[in-house]
Design goal:
- It is built from nine helices and twelve strands.
- The chain is α/β, with parallel strands linked by helices and 314 residues long.
- The chain has two domains: 109 residues, NAD(P)-binding Rossmann-like Domain (Rossmann fold); 177 residues, Rossmann fold.
- The protein has a seven-stranded parallel beta sheet with strand order 8-7-6-9-10-11-12, with helices on both faces. A five-stranded parallel beta sheet has the order 2-1-3-4-5.
- Strand 1, helix 1 and strand 2 form a beta-alpha-beta unit.
- The longest helix is centred in the C-terminal third of the chain and has 17 residues.
- The two termini are 33 Å apart.
């Protein structure tokens, strides 16, 4: 008899119909509350989840697969108590085009001074500032994975010089040069715009603090589409408020939603979006489709797609 399917999502009711579509003939159990998760995790074999509670993995004696909704799995790891047999998979690469488009939108908006003009409009000020040329600018990408390379190709097509970091550097026609992770300082120092796309791991957590931000030119811009825990937000605000950074645009924050008392809400030349860069209209359907494929692969004894290396953290 087919094993049931379990899901833990804050929008579990919206996911149920899609889960039933992709898993015809199977029982589907959806949880949206931590107490439901803790009471039922012992029965789960295949789990589709967004930020599940961390403290109940030892009870998951039947579990074979956790399919994360999203590319980042920092909220899962180190997954204390989770048996080694359990495969963790993510959505690596699924949102590469959407995130690259969103990243390019923010890069262009910053160079063309849109945050300044939006603020002037809200204050009813008719005030001019010259937009910058995009062609010839240097775009630094910290994390040239699937998303980073998709962004590099788009920026290169507009005439930007692209540089960046990659865990294992490999030449790419759209990128002028690529450093290993230790070369991030050089990327920061040489770039007109820096886009952060590295995963949140022990190595990257808090890796861009005041010292690293000081490597950026005062005329430079910073974009974060990765995870909020990578950048010291107090140092970011100080750099913006002190005029040591021309502007920034962040889609991710250390705490989400961003607390009402965060000074970033009113930081000068700063745009924020509510963690939506990787979204597209049928994302949930596509994600559950990958989950269904991975369940089938496991049941056939085949390796799953987008398996996470727990040691690396992604």
């Amino acid at each position: 008899m087919p094993q049931p399917i379990h899901a833990y999502l804050p929008f579990a009711s919206a996911a149920r119909a899609l889960l039933e579509k992709h898993f015809p003939g199977r029982d589907v159990v959806c949880w949206s509350k931590p107490e439901e998760f803790s009471a039922g995790i012992g029965d789960a074999v295949y789990l589709f989840a967004l930020q599940p509670p961390r403290s109940h993995w030892a009870q998951a004696e039947k579990l074979r697969l956790i399919q994360a909704f999203g590319a980042g799995v920092d909220y899962l790891l180190p997954a204390d108590g989770l048996a080694e047999r359990v495969v963790i998979a993510n959505q690596r690469g699924m949102s590469a085009d959407s995130m690259a488009e969103f990243g390019l939108t923010l890069v262009l908006a910053l160079l063309k001074q849109l945050p300044f003009f939006v603020a002037a409009q809200h204050a009813q000020r008719w005030e001019r500032r010259l937009p910058e040329r995009v062609a010839g600018k240097t775009l630094g990408i910290l994390g040239l994975g699937a998303i980073g390379l998709a962004l590099a190709e788009r920026a290169h097509a507009l005439g930007m010089r692209v540089i960046g970091t990659q865990r294992e550097p490999k030449a790419h026609p759209a990128v002028a040069w690529i450093e290993g992770p230790a070369g991030a300082a050089r990327v920061l120092a040489e770039s007109d715009v820096v886009v952060i796309l590295v995963p949140l791991t022990d190595a990257t957590r808090g890796s861009l603090g005041a010292r690293e931000l000081a490597l950026l030119k005062p005329s430079a811009y910073l974009v974060n589409l990765a995870r909020g825990g990578i950048v010291d937000e107090a140092a970011l605000y100080a750099a913006l408020a002190g005029g040591r950074l021309a502007g920034a645009a962040f889609d991710v924050f250390a705490r989400e939603p961003l607390p009402a008392d965060s000074p970033l809400w009113k930081a000068p030349n700063f745009w924020l979006t509510p963690h939506v860069a990787g979204g597209f209209p049928d994302l949930l359907d596509t994600s559950i489709g990958l989950f269904a494929e991975n369940v089938q692969r496991l049941e056939r004894g085949e390796p799953v797609r987008s398996a996470v290396d727990r040691g690396r953290g992604y």
